Amino acid sequence: MNVPVDLLYTKDHEWLRVEGEFGYVGITDFAQGELGDVVFVEIETIGESLQKGDVFGTIEAVKTVSDMFMPVGGEVVEVNPSLEQSPDAVNKDPYGNGWMIKIRISDPAEEGTLLDPEKYKALL
User: H or E stretch including 31?
Assistant: First the structure.
């Protein structure tokens, strides 16, 4: 199970990579493994300000459809454009090319509510 040390995690298996006032969000290696082959990613929240825990999109795999949740509050400023043509990037590279959204973080203090890599590994 791949759990990069430079990311923060949620109990719902999303990750957050903080870069200044922005953050990149995706699903973890564990989550993509549980879902199976990802066939479609739907994110229609670009430009919206969402709260921590709000649904920002859905991910469809061969077996199921799952909601994806905001790890922290913020404005969705970008959606990964490559996911439309290559949703399988989520399976192949969940922490790299398989990122979902870029957000402008509204309250950096919320980062402290997320799990560090060790706590996330313990959850698994």
Answer: helix 29-35
Tell whether 54 is covered by a domain.
yes
Closest by CA position to 83, among listed 61, 66, 100: 100
The answer as to whether 3 is a domain residue is: no
**What range does the domain containing 16 cover?**
8-108
Using left for φ > 0, alpha for ψ between -120 and 50, and beta otherwise, residue 93 falls in: beta
Domain membership of residue 121 (yes or no) is no
Q: Which tens digits make up the pLDDT trace of 68-94?
A: 999 999 999 999 999 999 999 999 999
pLDDT of 1:
82
Tell me the C-alpha distance between 14 and 68, whole Å. Answer: 7
Q: Cβ contacts of residue 8 below 8 Å, gap of 6+?
A: 15, 16, 17, 18, 71, 111, 114, 115, 116
Question: What is the CATH classification number for the domain harbouring 54?
Answer: 2.40.50.100
